[in-house]
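User: Can you help me understand a structure? I only have the sequence.
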Amino acid sequence: MAPTADPYSRPSLGLGERLIRLLACEFSVVADCDKLFAALEGMLPHAWHRFPVSHHHRLEAWRAEEGYDLREDGQALEKRPDARSAADFLFERMHQIAIAALAEYTKIHAGCAAWRGKRFVAIGPAGSGKTTLMTRLLYEGFDVYCDDVVLLRRGEVLPYPKLFRVRWDALPLLPQLSPSARQRESGRDHLPLDPTELGFAWRVEPAPSAVVLFLERNHGGATKREACPRVTMAERIMSHSNAPAGGPRVWLEHVRSLIESATPFVLTLGDLAGAVSAIKAALGEAEAS
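Assistant: Let's start by predicting it. Here is the structure, written out as tokens:
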């Protein structure tokens, strides 16, 4: 599949300036260091999305005698010692601002993908296999949107665009990854992965979900799929999500709207081939119901 257009990273407006979009936020990043921009480029998600921009921010990074002086909308931030750490700090700050700009949404720790137009979310704690599963699904004909965070509101799921974080110890489970991706040095405890760099389309837009899965680990074993009572699924979702600005009542309403429109299952995640089949079957059953 051909990569989609990339609205997150636009051409420079001038020397040392870059525009970056993350959902509702547009950031003007100004710096006097090509090395910092190069480091920043390696963190940007090249996803396509349709979402209105409502917030504008200016971030600055200036070389100083003892590192980099950083500023956000004119206010000084903490100094960073080198270009890489300055880029890391600015990008994490952009994500914090972008999430905060959507305070009316419930934030769920989940991946999100679709099969033949039917979307599902896969919820689970760290280490449950969300990223490994979502990466495998790229090679199984699924449209994969995110591996870590989805935003929920009014019955619609909005994937949050961020590079996938594939653990190094998960690479043996993903032989489909291109040699260039597998061999890329990141200097981190994970491999940052952009689906567009592997030739896949990456689209981020809100849509309803037909299925909601809760992942439980069964590493080294077989994958099993079981129906889950909606009340139980609601409890599990709330234990792996953050409340919106509207408080508990709105939080409950968001979760209720999801599980009323989506068929809930527990996916005991073992072998990935079995997981692919189980998810296709779940989506097929949801379509038939």
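Now, to help you interpret it: The longest helix spans residues 83-100. DSSP finds seven helices and 19 strands in the chain. Let me know which part you'd like to focus on.
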